[in-house]
Amino acid sequence: MIKKYKLLKELEKKYIVSDNRSFEEKLMAFEMLYEEARSLGVFGVNFEISENDPSFMIARVVNSFERASKKDSKKA
């Protein structure tokens, strides 16, 4: 459980804005982290998505990369 949720949200926002990697670089980093987690057995054999599953957090991260990437393309 996260005790300082608002502080985490502020940190997450600052990170998203300051991250200058391209969408492809961010996706590659995500895929590497996902493969590492899979190799460590984090997801288990019968992995299913539910509302309480970390996969929703993964989706939120990927979506934030897409939003940041759109901001980058508008600046160019």
Output the keywords.
single chain, 76 residues
Describe the model:
- With 76 residues, the protein is an all-alpha fold.
- It has one domain.
- Helices cover 68% and strands 0% of the residues.
- It contains three helices and no strands.
- Helix 2 packs antiparallel against helix 3.
- The protein is globular, with a radius of gyration of 14 Å.
- It starts with a helix and ends with a helix.
- The relative contact order is 0.14.
- The model has no long low-confidence stretch (mean pLDDT 77).
Distance N terminus to C terminus? 40 Å
Count of distinct structural domains: 1
The low-confidence parts are none
* SSE pattern: HHH
Largest sheet: none
Strand content: under 5%
In round numbers, the mean pLDDT is 77
Helix/strand class: mainly alpha
Secondary structure: number of strands: 0
Layout of secondary structure:
Blueprint (H helix, E strand, L loop, with lengths): L4 H14 L4 H17 L15 H21 L1
Helix pairs in contact: 2-3
Structure, briefly:
The chain is mainly α. Helices cover 68% and strands 0% of the residues. It has helices at residues 5-18, 23-39, 55-75.
